[in-house]
Specification:
Layout (H helix, E strand, L loop, with lengths): L6 H17 L5 H4 L2 H12 L5 H17 L3 H14 L6 H14 L3 H14 L4 E2 L2 E2 H12 L3 H14 L6 H14 L3 H13 L14 H13 L9 H13 L3 H7 L6 E4 L16 H4 L5 E2 L11 E7 L7 E8 L12 E8 L4
Parallel strand pairs: 3-7
Antiparallel strand pairs: 1-2, 4-5, 5-6, 6-7
């Protein structure tokens, strides 16, 4: 897949293009103040014999004149009235795009959103300077919309209609997060799976979504797993693990560990580090060693995470902190909120 500019940069550039288009006509001071100029332009506009290309030039000139004189209210009124009274104009989508971009520049996002949405819903797409009006609208809408339901629609439209303009990999992960926000877990998991299928999913860097690949991998793998290692409560998990350590029951400990992305790493490492994912048996470390654990969980434990300090595992790294966490998987209400033994941190806490 070819490289694409960052999503945020494209949005800024498309807005800048619209504003440059509004202000690109350079008028002399005398012309800017001349009511006669507007009268002449309106007269041309009333000429029924004017060609569509000439009509476009006249409308654009009037809008630019208003904008240059900082009469943006007049510009908006002129363009919206033209669209209402000329529903067949080829450039209606463009005139409303000028209006929407002006509102966005002025910080009136709800009005900008209304017009961007109106364009993609009611008007055919239009290329201006080789750029799609619909694509530009969708980019802005994703940024300013407060609704996950709406952003889901916008992401899907971009994926299906403009795949060549974006990083599809980024689109799928952002779509998955929006589906999560509205509780559509089947669609979220499907989007995560589509993200993982992309060739650059493991290397892509996405603004605002650190370790996107790790999150998607864990979600998809966890959904496919039996989840039979989870415990109803933290107390039940802690009791079972302590009992297995006391009886040197390595088989039980191996059963209690999560079977999806279990990690064993130092405190400085990250779960996304390939070396952090381990698939060893506890038998290798219990045999011939005298394992002990603290009576109580570490005082840094929280309602969703807990640490049990243990020692005696190895002459090289004697202290291990067993890491327990509450399962966050709303897609399965029977599993969501249970507890799992998710990993091991080697050494004393930093």
């Amino acid at each position: 897949m070819k490289n694409h500019p960052r999503f945020e940069i494209r949005i800024f550039c498309s807005l800048l293009l619209a504003l440059i288009t509004l202000s690109c006509t350079r008028l002399s001071p005398a012309e800017e103040k001349s009511a006669e100029t507007l009268d002449q332009l309106y007269a041309l506009l009333d000429d029924s014999s004017i060609s569509p290309q000439s009509r476009y030039a006249v409308i654009n000139r009037i809008a630019n004149l208003f904008y240059a004189q900082e009469r943006t209210d007049d510009m908006v009124l002129f363009l919206t009235e033209w669209v209402e009274t000329h529903p067949g104009d080829t450039y209606d989508a463009y005139w409303l795009y000028m209006v929407a971009s002006n509102y966005l520049k002025e910080g009136q996002e709800p009005l900008a959103e209304y017009y961007y949405e109106r364009i993609i819903t009611n008007f055919q797409d239009l290329l201006v300077n080789g750029e799609s009006i619909h694509f530009a609208c969708l980019q802005h809408l994703i940024q300013i919309s407060k609704s996950s339901e709406n952003r889901i629609t916008y992401f899907n439209r971009i994926i299906h209609n403009f795949p060549q303009n974006v990083s599809i990999t980024e689109m799928y992960i952002r779509l998955a997060l929006e589906y999560e926000n509205v509780g559509e877990w089947d669609m979220a998991l499907k989007s995560y799976a589509l993200f993982l299928e992309q060739p650059d999913s493991s290397t892509i860097q996405i603004a605002g979504i650190p370790e996107a690949y790790t999150k998607a991998r864990q979600m998809v793998d966890f959904a496919k797993s039996p989840k039979d290692w989870t415990f109803e409560s933290l107390d039940a998990l802690e009791t079972a693990v302590k009992k297995a350590i006391s009886s040197y029951n390595w088989r039980a400990l191996d059963r209690y560990r999560t079977k999806v992305n279990f990690f064993a790493m130092s405190w400085k490492s990250s779960e996304s580090d390939p070396n952090a994912l381990e698939n060893f048996s506890m038998h290798n470390f219990m045999l011939g060693n005298r394992i002990r654990y603290n009576e109580h969980l570490d005082d840094t434990s929280t309602p969703t995470e807990a640490y049990l300090r243990t020692w005696g595992w190895s002459q090289y790294i004697n202290v291990w902190y067993l890491y327990f966490r509450k399962v966050n998987f709303p897609a399965d209400p029977e599993i969501h909120g249970r507890w799992e033994w998710a990993g091991i941190y080697f050494g004393e806490k930093l």
